[in-house]
Amino acid sequence: MYWEKEVETMDRSALAGLQLGRLNESLTRARGSAFYGKRFAGGASSEGAQPAYAGTPAQPGGYAGTPAKPAGSSIELSGLEELTDLPFTTKDDLRNAFPYGFLTVDLQEVIRLHSSSGTTGNPTVVFHTPRDIDHWGNLIARCMYTTGVRKQDVFQNMMGYGLFTGGLGFHYGAEKLGVMTIPIGPGNSKRQIWFLKHLKATVIHILPSYALRLYSFFEEMQLDPKKDLHLRIAFIGAEPHSEEIRRKIEELYGIKVYNSYGLSEMCGPGVAFECECQVGLHVWEDHFYPEIIDPVSGEVLPEGERGELVLTTLTREAMPLIRYRTRDLTRFLPGECPCGRTHRRIDRITGRSDDMLIINGVNIFPIQIEKTLMAIPEIGRNYLIEINKENFMDRLSVKVEINEEVFHGTLAELEKLQIKAVAALRAELGVTPNVKLVEPSSLPVSEGKVRRVYDYRGGEQGGL
Ligand code: ADP
Ligand code: ZN
Questions:
Q1: Cα angle at 431 between 426 and 436, to 5 degrees?
Q2: Cβ(353) to ligand 1 under 6 A?
Q3: Residue 463 in this model has a pLDDT that exceeds 90
Q4: Pairing state of beta strands 307-313 and 281-283?
Q5: 348 CA: nearest ligand 1 atom
Q6: % of residues, the chain, pLDDT over 90
Q7: In which region does residue 176 sit, left (phi positive, over 0), alpha (psi from -120 to 50) or beta (all else)?
């Protein structure tokens, strides 16, 4: 049941001891980078309150091989709670220090670079030493093992290979576990299905939006994944999705679906993962130290309150990050998990602090719209949100596909369904949207992370 029983079930005080030791090592290591070397030059706290890095992008090679050496007094925390005295690191810090400002080792020690997919701006780059890659693979093996994946499984990895961490991250982890891995990547749906069927794949890793889209190809090929495949487990992640979407994928494919969370800045997938209980995601606290803060004041929130997840790497070598603001919104779940693992659990990510929509003063997260729509059986698997200005007012419109397996009605019934969707959304959001029902498979899909929000107020702005 456990990949590394001792560490996964370690008692909380021993875990805290391990974390503190690793945190201090991380701080020392971090000071070897140009960014933290400067930020922590005079010790830990006071100076750190301001962003010390001025943000001049480095010339190519500017930092390679010449990381700033730790200067001044060393930082040694005597308790984990003292971490809150240190300033946050932000995505802008990473961008400003591009490319090598956060590197703590000589470039010759680095064996891999990954980059975030840049959903909300320029990409950032992340470096890995052999040990970083080894730890990451081990974490993924731990995640997979936790949900019951074993050597005899056949794993089809439908996440993108390349700069995106989803593909290669799981690939190395699955190999570490000893599972035959099919590195197929996303897209080319009929070939995916052919491999799934003929290689008798039992485990997949897939974007939730793609899992829903892929299902329509089964229908087209007159196959039923429940009867014609050997699938039993899917890992979904990389984009926000509701519990309703998870259940939908479980029902369509007749499998267990587990939520996988991570971000390139920490390593990629493997940061937090659901266990067999499916009640929240265990943050692997022997490698990452999590905090939840108020995204506006920056204050650490009491346990159980929803806020922004902040992560500190405890074992990363090439690029340790201290109090990194993920912008992802979640909360710690109270209590112990029945699985016996002691690592704290976070709730599923409801969105990023920067994808909140303000519609005529009302705050809305796209995931609320998804959750509401997916609870209506006649509603299909894809939707899209548009926001426009009409007579100086914000207008929220939702286009949503109907589910032709459930809906066989007349035009009048279609109208009723539309009214039902509007009423459900109004009740959840507190604003009245336009709802347009469209044909199944008619809304755009992408091979990468799905984009569902198009905000046309003041020109096209970034959405999800
Ligand atoms: P980008 O920030 O450009 O999307 P990444 O590929 O590193 O780059 O993606 C990490 C982000 O993806 C996370 O910060 C989070 O917003 C989102 N994400 C990853 N896994 C999940 C998940 N299971 N649920 C919701 N969002 C997720
Ligand atoms: Zn658990």
A1: 65
A2: no
A3: no
A4: unpaired
A5: 24
A6: 79
A7: alpha
**Cβ contact 143:174 at 8 Å:** no
Residues 6+ apart with CB under 8 A from 314: 19, 22, 23, 25, 26, 286, 287, 288, 289
Ligand 1 contact, 450 CB (< 6 A): no
- Sheet order of strands, 379-390 included: 434-438, 393-402, 379-390, 453-455
Query: Which atom number of ligand 1 is nearest to the Cα of residue 121?
Result: 3
Residue closest via CA to ligand 1's atom 14 equals 263
Place of tokens 């309703």: 244
Tell me the ligand closest to 116's alpha carbon: 1
- Specify the range with the lowest mean pLDDT, choosing from 3-7, 29-33, 324-328, 354-358: 354-358
As to burial, measured by CB atoms within 10 angstroms (0-12 exposed, 13-18 middle, 19+ buried), residue 51 is middle
Whose CA is closest to atom 24 on ligand 1?
240
> How sure is the predictor about 269, in pLDDT bands with cuts at 50, 70 and 90?
very high
Distance 79 CA to ligand 2 centre (A): 26
User: Which atom of ligand 1 sits closest to the CA of residue 326?
Assistant: 14
User: Residue 435: which H helix or E strand, with range?
Assistant: strand 434-438
pLDDT of residue 121: 62
Ligand 1 centre to CA of 238 (Å) is: 4
User: Which tokens is 358 given?
Assistant: 């303000």
Cα 259 to Cα 241: distance, rounded to the nearest angstrom: 9
Which residue is closest in CA terms to ligand 1's atom 11? 263
Task: Single out the residue of 277, 318, 434 nearest to residue 63, CA to CA.
Answer: 318
Residue 132 Cβ < 6 Å to ligand 1? no
Burial call 136-170: b when 16+ CB within 10 Å, e when fewer: bbbbbbbbbbbbebeeebbbbbbbbbebbbbbbbb
CA of 420 to the centre of ligand 1 (A): 32
Answer yes or no: is the C-beta of 129 below 6 A from any ligand 1 atom: no
Bridge partner list, 234: 204, 257
